[in-house]
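hey so i finally got around to running the thing on that chain from the lab meeting. sorry it took forever, my laptop kept dying and i had to restart like 3 times. anyway pasting the input first so we r on the same page abt which one it is
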Amino acid sequence: MRRRADLLLRAASVRRWGWDDYRYQWSTGEVVAVAALLGDGDVLSDMGETLQTAYRRWAYDLWGMADAQADEAVELRATRKWFSGTAADIDRTVSDLEFEQSLREIRRR
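ok and heres what got predicted. didnt touch it at all, straight out
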């Protein structure tokens, strides 16, 4: 839950203010995840990534070794679903201050 909250807040920041303040301060993995959530193919390409490689990279962070390998065997279905579901909340994070605050509280835990 904390990882989701953190990435949603990062994606909302990029949506609001652009990449300039973040792209070179965050880890490669964080930039790749946020770009995947935002569907930003240009940033993914600049990082030498695609949506597929981003999903593969993040499957291991989300599920751990064994479950990520199982997810890869079924074309990363669970990881794609996680990214899709998380991306659906980006606009809500940008426009709903109460929701954004709840994410900040989750991230602090």
